[in-house]
Design brief:
The complex is a heterodimer. Chain A is of the alpha/beta class. Chain A is built from 5 helices and 5 strands. Chain A has one domain: 3-Layer(aba) Sandwich (Rossmann fold). In chain A, α1 packs across α5 and α2 runs parallel beside α3. In chain B, the strands form 3 sheets. A 6-stranded mixed β-sheet of chain B has the order 11-12-10-9-7-13. In chain B, strands 2-1-5-4-3 form a 5-stranded antiparallel β-sheet. Chain B has 3 domains: 154 residues, Beta-Lactamase; 95 residues; 168 residues, Histidine kinase-like ATPase, C-terminal domain (Heat Shock Protein 90). The C terminus of chain B is likely disordered. In chain B, α4 runs parallel beside α5 and α5 packs antiparallel against α6. Chain B starts with 8 loop residues before the first helix and ends with a strand. Classes of the chains: A alpha/beta, B alpha+beta. Chains A and B meet through α1 and α5 of A and α5 and α6 of B.
Chain lengths: 148, 501
């Protein structure tokens, strides 16, 4: 069941998107990865707009990898809206970003992030981090029950 | 001296004036009355002596012829003088011969016998004056006469004198009082005004107050000087206030500027943290991808080039992290706690030992270095210093690292000493600059941010840093922590720990 679950990657930088996908692939994580290129698109996918539900099946979603610096709606705002919605309030969200500034860490955890990972400059380290993430959130972690 | 009712200047002046006048009058009165009394007595005695002589001469024949009758008639002539109370005529054998008394009561004041010590003699007793004279005939005493006179003239005169004097005194004092009160308005008025103004200035800080009154005397000069002083104070106060306001305004402006630049700096580092790293990640990641994916199409030179690109991006990543750390240290709030530098140093040495097993390093850590400061930042200081010592002793077979406490001109200084590569003192001023390195990257890797960070942290604790060393003979980096280091270095030498591995 685990390998059938979906990962949502919210990332505006195409280079980072390619590198993240490459890093996941290098760890033999073959789950479907849906990519949203800004905060608005991510919210649309997850919660839908104008009363229509999102196109993403929430019960098949394993984890959201969320960048903080995003066009339109930034990462923290996305996180807050997810937590405010009963459908996604328990959804595992991992913040995956460049910075390790204290205010980002505090903001992310205060807004309800489950984890915070700084993207390392060195790709080898990034591959390692992606491996840990995949193993943990797709295999080790018991997902929250879906609330409807 | 405390005078009743003399708690004010006005009262004191009045009292002093009245008392001095009264004293002068009293002395004058006593002297005049005393002199009067003496003069009066002398006159009385002289007159009495004349009367006695006359009576004696007149009664000579009566004595010679033993005729008391005629003697008494002669004596009775003294009735004309109301002051004569009694007269006694005594014969040569001192017995009473004839008498005259003004009234019945005066009889007993005459002695029965002639008073002893014949000859010219007078005595004043109580309210009577007695004068006796020996009567001589052809050089021989034939009897004596004693006249007792009443002193009421003297006492009356004295009483009258004293009465007049008291009246004059009273009148004079009243006049003096009136004059005084008028005069004092001129003297104490300005003083009172001066006192009131001084009170206003000192209590209400009202430097615009001025004392009234400007006579030509010393008090007038005092008032003028006081007012001039107030003028000066008021002017200086206004200047001071202006300067103070200007300073306040400037401080507020500078604070605002500083806050703005701090915000800008924060925004800058935030942006650096997010945006500068992303392209690096791309360069590094895709170079790495190129190396892996196209390994068969790249020759050695191409691979070498890509590896250099990768190494540089990694180094740039470290530089960015170092810069961010440095700016974080500058902005971070200092949280004051008691920090045990000794145990912190011990921990750091242990961490380094575990990170790089197999190196022989002798570490000496002085105990009991307790300071006040930010625990996280002070840890960063020791981490940098001990980390440097660890790094620069890499080529030593017998590496030695020491953390200790020293007294530097009354200040407690902490130091980290090593016997590593050292440095040339010529460049000691460059040691603490950001991105300043005294060794090649190949020799000892590093980004040159460690000592700059140390210096910033130490400066923010109110301390300073300095270093001594020589090439190939090791280095000692010192730091103080301002007031925070006051507890330090008390038990250090006694409790020196020694670790070796």
């Amino acid at each position: 069941m685990a390998d059938k679950r979906i990962v949502l990657l919210v990332e505006d930088n195409p280079d980072d998107e390619a590198l993240t996908l490459r890093a996941l692939k290098k760890n033999n994580i073959l789950n479907e990865v849906v990519v949203a290129r800004d905060g608005a698109e991510a919210l649309d996918l997850l919660l839908g707009t104008n009363g229509k539900s999102g196109t993403l099946k929430l019960d098949q979603l394993a984890v959201v990898l969320l960048d903080l610096k995003l066009p339109k709606v930034n990462g923290l705002e996305v996180l807050k809206r997810l937590r405010a919605d009963p459908r996604t309030k328990r959804l595992p969200v991992v913040v995956l970003t460049s910075s390790k500034e204290e205010r980002d860490l505090v903001g992310a955890y205060d807004s309800g992030a489950n984890s915070y990972v700084q993207k390392p400059v060195e790709f080898a380290e990034f591959v390692q981090a992606a491996g840990h993430l995949g193993l943990y959130w797709l295999v080790t972690n018991a997902p929250p029950p879906m609330s409807r | 001296m405390k005078w009743p009712g003399a708690s004010t200047v006005r009262g004191k002046l009045l009292l002093a004036s009245i008392l001095s006048k009264a004293a002068a009058f009293l002395v004058a009165g006593v002297v005049i009355t005393g002199y009067d009394m003496m003069a009066l007595r002398e006159r009385l005695v002289r007159r009495l002596a004349v009367q006695t002589d006359i009576v004696g001469a007149n009664c000579l024949s009566a004595l010679l012829f033993n005729d008391p009758q005629s003697a008494e008639t002669t004596l009775a002539a003294l009735r004309a003088d109301p002051r004569v109370r009694a007269v006694g005529l005594y014969s040569a054998d001192r017995r009473m011969f004839a008498t005259y008394v003004r009234d019945a009561g005066s009889e007993r004041i005459l002695p029965v016998e002639a008073p002893a010590g014949s000859g010219p003699d007078y005595r004043g007793r109580d309210d009577h004056l007695r004068l006796s004279r020996t009567i001589l005939f052809q050089g021989k005493p034939v009897g004596s006469v004693l006249i007792v006179s009443d002193l009421s003239e003297v006492t009356d005169t004295i009483t009258r004198d004293v009465g007049i004097f008291a009246g004059v005194l009273l009148l004079a004092l009243l006049i003096a009082l009136a004059i005084n009160i008028r005069l004092q308005r001129a003297i104490s008025g300005p003083i009172l005004s001066l006192a009131e103004t001084a009170r206003k200035v000192s209590q209400e800080k009202d430097y615009a107050a001025r004392a009234a009154g400007s006579s030509g005397d010393e008090i007038g000069a005092l008032v003028t000087a006081f007012n001039e002083m107030l003028e000066e104070i008021q002017m200086q106060e206004a200047e001071l206030r202006t300067a103070h306001d200007r300073l306040e305004q400037r401080v507020a402006e500078r604070t605002a500027q500083l806050e703005t630049s701090n915000r800008e700096l924060e925004a800058f580092s935030y942006s650096v943290s997010h945006d500068l790293r992303a392209p690096l990640r791309s360069i590094e990641g895709f170079s790495r991808a190129l190396l892996e994916d196209c390994a068969d199409r790249l020759d050695e030179a191409g691979k070498d080039s890509l590896n250099r690109v990768i190494a540089s991006t990694v180094r740039m990543g470290q530089l960015i992290d170092g810069l961010l750390n440095l700016s974080r240290v500058t902005r971070a709030e200092i949280r004051g706690r008691t920090v045990d530098l000794s145990s912190l140093a011990g921990e750091i040495v242990e961490e380094l030992r575990q990170g790089e097993n197999g190196r022989r390093v002798e570490a000496v850590v002085a105990g009991g270095a307790m300071v006040e400061g930010d625990p996280a930042l002070l840890r960063a200081v020791l981490q940098n210093l001990i980390g440097n010592a660890w790094k620069f002793t890499r080529k030593r077979d017998e590496a030695r690292i020491e953390f200790g406490v020293a007294k530097e001109s009354g200040e407690t200084a902490f130091f980290v000493r090593d016997n590593g590569a050292g440095f040339d003192m010529t460049y000691s001023d460059k040691l603490f600059g950001a991105f300043q390195r005294l060794h090649g990257q190949n020799e000892f890797p590093g980004i040159g941010i460690g000592l700059a960070t140390v210096q910033r942290i130490v400066n923010r604790h109110g301390g300073r840093t300095w270093a001594t060393g020589a090439p190939d003979q090791g280095a000692t980096i010192y730091f103080t922590l301002g007031n925070g280091g006051r507890n330090g270095g008390q038990k250090d030498r006694a409790a020196g720990g020694r670790q070796s591995g």
